[in-house]
Amino acid sequence: MPGPSPQVFMNAPTAARIATSVDFLRSRGLWERLAHLPFEPAPRDALEAVHSPDYLDLLRENSERGGGWLTADTPFGPRSWDAAVAGAGAAITAVEAV
Questions:
Q1: How far apart are CA 77 and CA 98, in angstroms?
Q2: Is the separation of the CB atoms in 41 and 85 below 8 Å?
Q3: pTM, whole model, 2 decimals?
Q4: How far apart are alpha carbons 12 and 69 in whole angstroms?
Q5: Are 37 and 97 in contact (CB under 8 A)?
Q6: What is the DSSP letter of 24?
Q7: Spatial separation of the C-alpha atoms in residues 86 and 83, rounded to whole Å
Q8: Residue 4 burial (10 A CB sphere; 0-12, 13-18, 19+)
């Protein structure tokens, strides 16, 4: 399968981009004003409310096998499942807090 387009990595939420964003918020005094809520990974039933069980199984299994390419421009690593489920859980917590 061909490699990703250059734009894939430009838009990826890399650790460096996240650190830069946090540094920016701190430099403006905004980081401290944000609510830093604890969260849990999203439960399977919440994920299945928006994705098919087959799709979720595909993502989890690809991650467990060490990752690879889901499509020609969608890289998926060994921790991508954990990151996706954590991100979904954080989003649920944020919505519930509003």
A1: 32
A2: yes
A3: 0.76
A4: 14
A5: yes
A6: H
A7: 5
A8: middle
Q: Are strands 68-71 and 74-76 parallel, antiparallel or unpaired?
A: antiparallel
DSSP label at residue 54: H
DSSP assigned state of 52: -
Which residue's entry shows tokens 């060490």? 66
In the block, tokens 């859980």 appear at 89
Side-chain-side CA neighbours of 66 within 13 Å: the count stands at 0
- DSSP sequence for 62-87: HHHTT-EEEETTEEE-TTHHHHHHHH
Percent of the chain with pLDDT over 70: 87
Which stretches of the chain drop beneath a pLDDT of 70? 1-13
Torsion sign (Cα): 18, 21, 23, 25: negative
C-beta contacts of 2-7 below 8 A and 24+ residues apart = 2/72, 3/72, 4/69, 4/72, 4/73, 4/74, 4/75, 5/73, 7/73
